[in-house]
Amino acid sequence: MSETHTQTNKPKVAYGVLVVLMLGAFVALLSNTLLNIALPSIMKDFNVSAATVQWLSTGYMLVNGILVPTTAFLIKKFSARQLFITAMALFTTGTLIAGFAGSFSILLTGRMVQASGAAIMMPLLMNVMLTSFPPEKRGSAMGLFGLVMIFAPAIGPTLSGWIIQNYEWPMLFFMIAPIAFIILLIAVFRLHDKKESLPGSIDILSVIFSTFGFGGILYGFSSAGNKGWSDAIVITSLVVGVISLISLVWRQFKLEEPMLDFHVFKYPMFALSTVISFTLNMAMFSAMLLMPIYLQNIRGISPLDSGLLLLPGAIVMGIMSPITGRLFDRFGGRILAIIGLSITIVTTYFFAKLTLDTTYTQLIWLYSIRMFGISMVMMPVMTNGLNALPAKYTPHGTAVNSTIQQVSGAIGGSLLVTIMSNRSVTHGKELFADAAKQLQAATSPEALAHLKELITMKATIEGINDAFLVSAFVAVIALIASFFIKRAKAPTSEK
Hints:
- Residues 17-490 form the Major facilitator superfamily (MFS) profile domain.
- It is a multi-pass membrane protein.
- This protein folds into 2 domains: 9-189 and 259-482, MFS general substrate transporter like domains (Growth Hormone, Chain: A, Up-down Bundle), CATH 1.20.1250; 203-258.
- Helix content is 80%, strand content 0%.
- It has helices spanning 2-8, 15-46, 50-53, 55-67, 71-77, 80-99, 104-132, 138-166, 171-190, 204-227, 232-254, 268-298, 303-331, 334-351, 360-375, 378-387, 394-434, 436-440, 445-482.
């Protein structure tokens, strides 16, 4: 018995495969984070609203949300080499399309092609990590995975800010394309893994339900920013999305070999980790999408300085990732989640108090402390949930996790930008009504224009504050759920 146990503690890791997969994941994450700082510049170049430009992030996550459910089948059916080369080829192609985009629609198309590659990469890497390490060592292993995931966001905003300040935004894609191509070549010549193809075929009806389900919900949330919640298209999209998702779940329980096995939710700790991850991702995207708009459009801070402001927080997450992995192995996820979410809620609440006079130093400290809190929650909660699953459910667990990350991020981003847009209009009407006498008393057209601009900026800030406040309430839900976390034990049975 002891010999068997000792053997299971030794990770059987194909380090060469892991390195290549991590390089691909790094470049995909770098590409995603590079674009956030560039959104205000793209808004001006293509003359689109905040609710429209956020589709570059939401559309990316939308494609991920649609395709990730298929990865459980793909991981079982094909080797890591086959999947990774396909993913990098799609990602590189999408990067080139986006770089040469002459219109917003082509840019969005390029981002979606990019996403089709990234959708395969992240679950594939996570699955290889989980199958390479035993449950009692996964905290440290996933901490290393988290370090790679966070290093890209750490340098992304600052690098993006410098490029936007000195070049045009297409350079973001032209810089990534050769790196992605080199990783693709490395994979072609150096990535080797042995795996027999398993029998089976993907269920087309499940793919259709998945596409309309996730697509309908995300499109509905995203469109509400421009069209309003009462718009027929928004309501129809949400209804179709909900019905399709219910049909997807029903379909999976009817199949002998489901595309996405929802039996993973019968394990309480995995189900709980899903709830916490969903709400935390929604809250996290508030700062990622709203901060560049506040910093550049309202405060007039340069893209480079905007990126530098976000850099310390991302570095904190990078440093903390392997540390929280080790702390998780020792103490479990509950105490880390409670402390981390408490910090996240308090700092998010203070972000709901932004003004035209909030100092640069205050913003750096708030953002960095908030990222510190989030770093204590993400990987420990996710790892604890996956540890609760038998080995045969690991591909489905990683696929569900990745789907939840993308869908919750897209819904959170869309919802919060919609709240910001709608509340800004409401605050604008109130502020203009209050300032009616001042507007009438303006002595020159220049003074009138300046006063209108000031009122508009104040209204936008109030809209951003409202979105942050909603984000704080969402994080409270995750905090309540975290009190029920228990250390997951490796199941003795796969039934």
